[in-house]
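Worked example 4.2. Below are the chains of a multi-component assembly; read each line carefully before continuing.
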Amino acid sequence: AQSVAQPEDQVNVAEGNPLTVKCTYSVSGNPYLFWYVQYPNRGLQFLLKYITGDNLVKGSYGFEAEFNKSQTSFHLKKPSALVSDSALYFCAVSLYNQGGKLIFGQGTELSVKP
Amino acid sequence: GAGVSQSPSNKVTEKGKDVELRCDPISGHTALYWYRQSLGQGLEFLIYFQGNSAPDKSGLPSDRFSAERTGGSVSTLTIQRTQQEDSAVYLCASSPWGGGSTDTQYFGPGTRLTVL
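Applying the procedure described above to all two chains together yields the following structure tokens:
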């Protein structure tokens, strides 16, 4: 079965420090990988995606993610965290020829303290 | 431009009643998705419409759940004989390019359903 794992329920970071939110996947075939962010009582907002090509993908609000095929990972990173980055982050995968339905990880709560 | 809109934003119903949830996708988007977000199950795919093709209903949890999309635009998710385990936030998303696997999906704010 296809699955996405976010091994940390919560990540705590001090403002100004780098942040990493981890994501690993288990799929058959080539994955297309996405990161979304959810603020309280809001829908999901798209951050970035990996389709093909350069393994380092840059997205919205200064976030980036690195696709690592050998480790089946797609970790989200930001060089300097802001308090306003505090939110719930979801990693997701879609597969070729299965329409666009997304399989989500369970989410990671990011807390950035001043 | 306008994003995906959903109504109502909150719905409280009694067990056994039917409910209808509405989604207005971004104008011009040809693919539309429904997902469910609950504490126990996380974010789950429910159903997917792509243009005039038959919908992918593979994520619907039971035959009490159904959805339609009229005129290639607005969609309604119907839950019949609601149960307490149906309590969740129901999210709708749309994408512009026909719903391929590489498309970015744009999500609405969701409808919070509470079944008493």
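Take a moment to check your reading of the output against the notes. The two ends of chain A are 41 Å apart (CA to CA). DSSP finds no helices and twelve strands in chain A.
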